[in-house]
Request: fold
Amino acid sequence: MALLLGDTAHDPTAATTFGTNRFDQVAPALQYAPARVLKTPAPARVDGDDLVAIVARFASAGRLWRPHVRHDPSARRYVRLAWAPDHEVWLICWSQGHEVDLHDHGGSAGAFIVTDGVLREEYIDAGRFRRRRCTRGAARSFSAGHVHTVSNPGPTVATSIHAYSPPLRSMTFYAPHAGTDLLATHVEMVSKRESP
Reply:
């Protein structure tokens, strides 16, 4: 027996006593229907090379992101530029000295490209802290679980475009502890309302 959405909706103009509207015809069928949960398939993940291609395409399409560039000396500014079930794209504006503490991306892989200025990324690789200077046009990808810090060492502002797959839900922040060990300090949930 197929049930249509309209079959179970209560009609507020109908009499409200049981047996006088269509609900009593549907309820017995629901009462004996076997319980089953419909699972929605997990979104496909976009791999690192494809994430790099996505940020490079956005970087080359300035009309999509340049109108949102604002450098605020008091705080980084970020704007979600695009969202799909399997990935999302963000613009981040960095004034000189801005940085984000050591963090992961809550199970998402990612990529970023510098469109203006210079960024410095510090990350752990083979048990050691490493540092990478990312200049204009430099793109890089990272796998889920990657922990890094990104900063603008100056002397000018910097702008970057980031893609994550699946879309970000949370970010865990860390403090260094005993060499290259990390101590989780807090988790920030990512709002889905950061779009332009």
Notes: Residues 48-189 form a domain with the Jelly Rolls fold (CATH 2.60.120.10). Confidence is low (pLDDT under 50) at residues 1-34.
